[in-house]
Amino acid sequence: MECQKEKNLENCPCTYPGCPRKGICCECVKHHRENGELPGCYFNSETEKSYDRSIEKFIEDQKK
Ligand code: SF4
Question: HSE-up of 39 (CA within 13 Å, CB side)?
Answer without folding.
Answer: 16
